Structure formats: structure tokens, C-alpha cells
Amino acid sequence: MCAASHCQRPCGNDSPAPSSSRTGSPFLMTITDTRQSAFPAAEYSERVERLRVRASAKGFDVLVVTDPKNIFYLTGYDAYSYYVPQSMVVPVASDAPVLVLRRQDVPAALWTTHLDEDQILGYGDEYLTGNLHPMEYVAEVLKSLGFGKATIGIEFDGSSFSPRGMHVLEQALADATFADMNRLVEWVRCVKSEREIQVMHEAGRISDHAMETAFDAISLGIAESQVAARTYAALVGGLHGIYGSAPWQPYMSSGQRTNTPHLRWSDEPYRMGRPTMIELGGHRHNYAAGLSRTIFLGRPPADYRSLEGAVVEGLHAALPRLRAGNRAEDVERVWRRTIESRGFEKNYRIGYSIGISFPDTGWVERTISLAPGDRTVLNPGMTIHLMLAVWLDRIGYSLSETFVVGDGQPERLSSLPWELMVK
Amino acid sequence: MCAASHCQRPCGNDSPAPSSSRTGSPFLMTITDTRQSAFPAAEYSERVERLRVRASAKGFDVLVVTDPKNIFYLTGYDAYSYYVPQSMVVPVASDAPVLVLRRQDVPAALWTTHLDEDQILGYGDEYLTGNLHPMEYVAEVLKSLGFGKATIGIEFDGSSFSPRGMHVLEQALADATFADMNRLVEWVRCVKSEREIQVMHEAGRISDHAMETAFDAISLGIAESQVAARTYAALVGGLHGIYGSAPWQPYMSSGQRTNTPHLRWSDEPYRMGRPTMIELGGHRHNYAAGLSRTIFLGRPPADYRSLEGAVVEGLHAALPRLRAGNRAEDVERVWRRTIESRGFEKNYRIGYSIGISFPDTGWVERTISLAPGDRTVLNPGMTIHLMLAVWLDRIGYSLSETFVVGDGQPERLSSLPWELMVK
User: I want to staple A98 with a disulfide (CB 3.0 to 4.6 A). Which of A89, A111, B1, B269 is the partner?
Assistant: First the structure.
């Protein structure tokens, strides 16, 4: 069905279940399942076209997209099979893109994308369990499409593309020229469409629901793991008919362990007089809305309130700068000065572009950073996870959420208060 | 605390919370948190020593380990920060290994490993948000340790190491020689210690609990997403004081979508007369025990029972071959012949080495495959996820679980029946 929650029209076609060439009984099924994608076919075509315009300007003949989030963006392919190499081959001029997967995953592409059957190629397990490498198969595909001597864009610093994969491509296509796409697909992903923003709003509602669930669950003597269990259930079960897709795991830490961002739960019981930092993201059709809050059991000491005050003041100062026309570094500068005036500092970026999230590398888009020296001009429709946690030597305080950049004050994807959550 | 559930001794030391060099108020905390690792320090030292023996035999002077699961194996480092480049530098002769992380993650290494503070180095955000690459920092570390002209083992086909990372190392260390470690750490990981097997048994109990939870939850008209939510809660909440660490997401599909392995839940309601395949893994201290079952609502048709019968017969035939001294391919051959005699075939491997699981690439160890041509001799203490799913054109049947290889019949990590779960 269409990702828009009010829309009941299927975005796919009503073609019957895809078939592959395997043997076995035909099995009479009484119900015929239909293909489902998060967005209509036109949305994916537009994305590919925008990519082609930029790729053409850079002189590429063909692109080999290997990052699973980029493949999802361009096709809707939604199966967690990226632990083996996969590629989307995008001819820049006009021919149809081709998706290369492990053969057993080909039906998953038929279920979740709008691609035609002849756009999906599967390599056999001999490319995984022997001496062959899946990129040899991709090289053959490139040759068969006439790109043996082409200028080929590759994701030189992407997820799921190894030095060996690169080496195999270079060996097999000795007459081709390889050049780094330099995160071209990720840059195309920066500005979200209306449909994407709607999906991210739904993700934001799931984020709020999960944070409130965690807050309700935390109490004296309860183990962190049990709160994590309930938080996961809220992230996946969702609310009001908006269910969650597979989430990036929540970060949770308490007490002195709040001095660093990326720890998770243990079996320790919650205790009075200690803070708990939670960073989580509701996921809707694999789009995430990052959200962090700090929860305090008991009465927070004055010096902790002072840290909270600095962070919230920093947020109020930074937010008006998070608007179209400003540069990424402008937002960080205002934040930095504000918290410095309160005696704190943070030597890390305070936000980044966010959108599609897969577990391989999470939800961070490696394009815009709210950090010194990042002179990217913000545009309407960009989505930014503003990450204002401060980690001190022995304690931390976390506040973050996701915003949509516009011409005025940015749009929130959360409706939770910004203050410390005291219980 | 020690991973052994009956052990109450802390495996770490009782040193106070680690500190870093940041500014800010000291914050008087009434409770001092202590370091925690899954295993005692000696276990990690043994692992590094085994790695060194093999690395020395291959002529390496130093190893640069980039795969987050390999880093976890060698150090216990347990924070999900692998979405940025990280490295463990292991001098082969005798010097202490060094862990290189993003600076904000250094305290997480102090919390979760037995490493000394001077073994943990942090790079600043200028390596992420500007033109620098974290591997330039790693190159400087290698130089400072005297490895500027050394033979350096790298993970040429590993997760989290990009062609650009490789290129940066080569440029910065022009006098060094780089050679592929060829999954050396993963090969060391193949044979599990007694402690690891105990942890995987605990993971197996969580797997069973989660599968039973899913079976209980599935019923006519319930949405798949709500079953997924309860399954996640079971995976994380665990049972009898054994909680789960962050799980790889369950694979779930119903009806004709069972013709492929890697789909997940939707909001579709469960319907009578249709199968549901579930593949999940309880995770304990990041060790997974893979488990798959098929659940059928209503009375299964005869041809589906025939597929079930072939798979279960194949399991019974293969299992006695899954023992020390046999080769990996032997197990697959017996399975293949058995199901062929029943009119089915599967052109994919039927199992692989399993152990540590991180979301970057899941729980598959890329060493042993139960597949034609894999002549690896099985040894006691190897753990194999025997994956006997068969995906036909329009329907599939899934049965899998994790076994410990021994001198006789392999040890099960599950106690669930092998038959179709009918409801």
C-alpha cells in the first residue's frame, strides 16, 4: 500500500506473485499476494532522473550503487540481504537500471520494487561459497550492457563495498575508468519529497510513543533490559495503525555511563538520583526520526540542572538558524557560543542529515554536518537530526530531535517537551 | 559481570569510572559504576595470542582489524559506533594492541573492555566532517608504533573498510606492504571456547522463548507488525534473568512471500490456510543462536506436508554428518540427495559458521559454508547455523537451528520440535 497512511490505493500493480525458475510443486494458494512498495513508481523514477542529471554533469557513463540505503532509495528494495554484496547498475543516458542480488533474494525485489523482472539479476551461491566474488558477476553485467570501456562511478567510501570488490572490478574491466561518485546518491537524498516528509512525520510519532513508553517503564529497581524490551515493542508496534519497520537499536545508558553516546542496556536496575540517556528512532518504511531525551529518577542536583539549562538554551539559540539560506556551520556556531557562555563545550558536530536507516550504518547521511567548516547551504525539505548531547567526564545530558528545514522556524517531528524528564 | 549466568564475580576490575579530558563540572555522583565485559581478561588475551600465532606464520608484522565483530571478539568493545571507521592495531610480535575510535567513543571502550587507557586512542570529529579520513589517523598510529615500512595485514574484503580507507592507508604508508588477512580473525573465531558456548546456549534459550512468543501471538486477523513487536520484546527481555542484547531483526513473511528469505513484517493480518516463516536469533552478549520455524494457521494441505516431510527427513539425514572429522560439503551432499529423492532441490548453502552478531552484516561468519566444494574439516567447538529452508516459486518452508559440533551427534541450542508448528 501507499506509504501515506490515509491512502488505500496500492502503489504497486496487481500482478500475481512473481515466480522464479525453481522446481517443486506448484502449490495451489487461495489468496494471491500483491507487490507492495512504500511509494508509487513515479517517485522512484523521479529519484533516478535526478541522479542521472547530476551523474551526467560529472561525466559518468554508468553508476554502480552498492550502499543498501542508496539502493533502497532508488528502487524501494526492502529486504535485509545486504550482508552479501549487491549492486544497482544505473546507465546514465537512458537504459533501465539493473539490480544485482543474490539469486534467492530476487523474489524479494519483485515483491518490494516496481522493477520489471528483466531488471533484476541474481547471482548463484558459487559467488559466495567458493573463490568467485559477486563483483565478478557485476563486472559481467557491466560488460554485457556495453560499459566495458566506460567511465564508471563507484561508491569509493560507501558501506558494503570492500577494497576487494573494487579490486575485482578493476581487474575484470581493465579498459574502464573508475571514479568516485563522492556520495552522489546521498546528496540527492538530502532534500526530501513531500511523501518522504510525511513518512518521517509518522516515524516521529513512533519515536515519541517509544520515548513515552520508556519513560513510563523506568522506575526504581526495574532492570534496564526490561525497559529496552518495552521500548522495542513500542518502536515496532507503533500506534494508531502506524507500525514501525525494523528499528536501529536504542542507545540507553545510566549513571556515569552517560559520559559516552553509544552504549546500550544491561541488566542493572534503575536507581534513584541518576540520569538515563535514551536515543532512539521510530522507523517508518525504513525512514528514521532520531530523538533523544534524558530521564532522571528523583530530584536532579543543581549542577545537573545547570547542564540541562545550557543545552536547552543552546537549542533555543540554534533553532532559528536552522533555516533555508543559512550554512550548516552557522547553526553550530550559535550553539557553541551559547553553551560556552554557560561554561560547557562540545567538540563534536551537533547534527547531520537524516532519512533512510538501515542497520549496516544506521540513519546518519554522510553529507551535511552541523560542524565548523561545513558551509553547505540549507534548503527547504532537508531533514536534520539536531544532536545536542553533551558528554562530560563522568556524566552526560542528551537532547535531540529531527527537524524539517524550511523558510522559517524548522518543523518539528516530535511533540515532546525539551526539558529533562523527571520521575 | 561475568557472562556465565551463575557467576556473580565481576570480570572487570573495580576501578572507578574512566575519565576523559573534557571540561565541565565534576558532578558528585553517589554511586561509582564499574567496568563490565562479557568475559574475563584472560579470554581476550588468549584470543589475541591465537591470532598472533597465525599472523606470525603468515609473515605479518602488524594487523589492522576493521570489522566491528572482529574488534568485539578481540577486545569486548561493545558500543554501536561502527558507522564510523574504527580500527584495532595488533602488533604481531609482542606490543600491546591499540584500539582507534572516534574520540567520543573512547569512554565506551573503558567501560566495556579490559584495555588500559593508553591502549585506546580517539580521533576528533575533524576526521568525519571535513576532508580528512579516519584512516589517516590510523596511518599515523601505525607510523608512531614503528610500522611505517612493515608488512601490514588488512581486511581486504571486510565490513566497515572501504576502498577509500584502503587508498588512504596506501598513500600515507608508501613504504609499507599491505596484504589481505584473508579473514584470519574470523577463522580464529570459528572454534568457540567453553565460555562462548555457554553464552550461545543462553542465546538459544532466548531464541526458543521468542519463537514460542511469536507462535502464541499469531492468530487470525492479528497484524504481522504486532507479532513482530511481541517477538522483539521477547528477544530483548529474555527469560529467567537472561536478557538479550540488541538483536538482528527477525525475518518474517507469510503466504506467497515465503518464496524468499529476507523479507520482514507488514501490517497485513494473518489469514487461515497460509504459512508464516520466521527466522530469528536470541542475542546474548552479542552472540546469536539462529533459529527458524514455519507456523501454519489451519490445516496444512497435503503438498505442503510433503515439503515439510522432505525438509525434516533431510535434517535427520544431515545431522549425523555434522560432526568432527567430516567436511562441510559432506553434510550438504547428504541433505541434497535426501530432498532430491523427495522431488525437491535447494541451490543454496544449507548452513554456515555462526557466533558474534552485529547489525552491520548480521551473524554469518564468512568462513565455513555447508555447500558443495567447501572442504573445511569440522572441529569440536565449531557452531553451525543449519539453514534448511526451501524456497519454491510460490511458497517456502523454513527450518533452521544452531548446533555445536562435537565428536558425536551435534549439540542442539534449541529444544523446540522440528515439525511444522500448526495452530
Answer: A89
CATH superfamily of A41-189: Creatinase/prolidase N-terminal domain (3.40.350.10)
Burial B212-238 (b: 16+ CB within 10 A, else e): bbbbebbeeeebbbbbbbbbbbbbbbb
- Closest residue in A to B229 (Cα) is A233
Cβ–Cβ of B232/A233 closer than 8 Å? yes
Min CA distance, A374 vs chain B (Å)? 7
Per-residue confidence in pLDDT tens, chain A, 423 aa: 333 333 333 333 334 344 333 344 445 445 578 888 889 999 999 999 999 999 999 999 999 999 999 999 999 999 999 999 999 999 999 889 999 999 999 999 999 999 999 999 999 999 998 889 999 999 999 999 999 999 999 999 988 899 999 999 999 999 999 999 999 999 999 999 999 999 999 999 999 999 999 999 999 999 999 999 999 999 999 999 999 999 999 999 999 999 999 999 999 999 999 999 999 999 999 999 999 999 999 999 999 999 999 999 999 999 999 999 999 999 999 999 999 999 999 999 999 999 999 988 899 999 999 999 999 999 999 999 999 999 999 999 999 999 999 999 999 999 999 999 999
Could you identify the residue written with the cell 517509544?
A210
Residue A294: how many other CB atoms lie within 10 Å: 24
Superfamily name and number for B194-422: Creatinase/methionine aminopeptidase superfamily (3.90.230.10)
Q: Which residues of B touch A103 (CB under 8 A)?
A: 347-348
Amino acid at B365: E
Question: Which of B263, B303, B305 to mutate against chain A (most A CBs within 10 Å)?
Answer: B263
ipTM: 0.93
Task: Determine whether the interchain pair B162/A165 forms a contact, defined as Cβ–Cβ distance below 8 Å.
Answer: no
**Which of these, A310, A368, A367, lies nearest to A340 by C-alpha position?**
A310
Hey, are the CB atoms on A107 and B267 less than 8 Å from each other? Answer: no
Residue A81 C-alpha, separation from nearest chain B C-alpha, in angstroms: 6
SS3 B390: strand
Q: How far is A9 from chain B (nearest CA, A)?
A: 15
